[in-house]
Write a structure and sequence with these properties.
The protein has 186 residues and is α/β, with parallel strands linked by helices. Helices cover 38% and strands 19% of the residues. It has helices at 38-47, 50-58, 96-113, 133-151, 164-177; strands at residues 2-5, 8-14, 24-28, 68-72, 80-84, 118-121, 156-161. The longest helix is centred in the C-terminal third of the chain and has 19 residues, at 133-151. It binds adenosine-5'-diphosphate. Adenosine-5'-diphosphate (ADP) binds at residues 16-18, 28, 38-40, 42, 86, 122-129, 160, 162, 166.
C-alpha cells in the first residue's frame, strides 16, 4: 500500500525490517541503548557486534525517550541504523502520543541530516512497550505524513509491519488519513 506526499512515497509492507534494502533502518531501542528483544534483538543479531560497539562509544549516556541517535549498520543491507526510543505505554495520559511522534520526527530529521533517501520504520513502541497498535498507527502515520508534507523527503518512508494484524491496523489508519483517490472523483 502506497501514498504519494509532496513527491515522496509513504509505503506499508509486511515483513522483517532487518532485511530491508534502504539507506536507514530504524531500530526500536530502549533509552540505555542496551539491547533487547524484538526489533532490537533482530537488528543486533543480523547486523553483528559493530553496531552496539559504536553506540556504546558515541552515546554512553544513551538516548532520551522521544528522541533518536544514529550509527553504522554493520552487516545489514543499509548504511545506517537510527535508534529511536519510543515511550512505554502507561495508559495514554503520560505524553505517550507526543513522545512517540517525537521519536518518529527525530528519526526523520537524522535521516535527512545524513542524506538518506530511503528509511524503514518498525511500529515503534507496539511490542514490549505495549502501545496499542491502532493508536500507534495513527500517531506514526500522521507524523510521517506531516513531515513529508513539509520537507518532501526522504524520497521513501516504508513501514515494515511484522504481522498481518499490525499491517491491517496501519492500512486502515492510512486509508483514513489519506483516502485512495478515485480517478473519477472531481
Ligand atoms: P518496543 O520496545 O518499542 O515496543 P519491540 O521491538 O518490542 O519494540 O516491538 C515493536 C514492533 O516491532 C512490534 O509490533 C513487533 O511485533 C515488531 N517486530 C518485532 N520484530 C520485528 C522485525 N524483525 N521486523 C519488523 N518488526 C518487528
Amino acid at each position: 500500500m502506497k501514498r504519494t506526499i509532496h513527491g515522496a512515497t509513504l509505503e506499508l509492507v509486511q515483513g522483517d525490517i532487518t532485511l530491508q534494502q534502504v539507506d536507514a533502518i530504524v531500530n526500536a531501542a530502549n533509552s540505555r541503548l542496551a539491547g533487547g528483544g524484538g526489533v532490537d534483538g533482530a537488528i543486533h543479531r543480523r547486523g553483528g557486534p559493530d553496531i552496539m560497539e559504536e553506540t556504546r562509544q558515541k552515546y554512553p549516556q544513551g538516548c532520551p525517550t522521544g528522541s533518536a541517535v544514529i550509527s553504522g549498520a554493520g552487516r545489514l543491507k543499509a548504511k545506517y541504523v537510527i535508534h529511536a526510543v519510543g515511550p512505554v505505554w502507561r495508559g495514554g495520559n503520560q505524553q505517550e502520543a507526543e513522545l512517540l511522534a517525537s521519536a518518529y520526527r527525530r528519526s526523520l530529521e537524522l535521516a535527512l541530516e545524513y542524506g538518506c533517501q530511503s528509511v524503514a520504520f518498525p511500529a515503534l513502541s507496539t511490542g514490549a512497550y505495549g502501545y496499542p497498535m491502532d493508536q500507534a498507527a495513527q500517531v506514526a502515520l500522521h507524523t510521517v505524513r506531516d513531515f513529508l508534507a513539509e520537507h518532501g523527503k526522504p524520497e521513501l518512508v516504508r513501514f515494515v509491519l511484522f504481522d498481518e494484524r499490525a499491517f491491517r491496523h496501519f492500512a486502515d489508519a492510512l486509508e483514513e488519513l489519506i483516502p485512495e483517490q478515485s480517478p473519477n472523483k472531481g
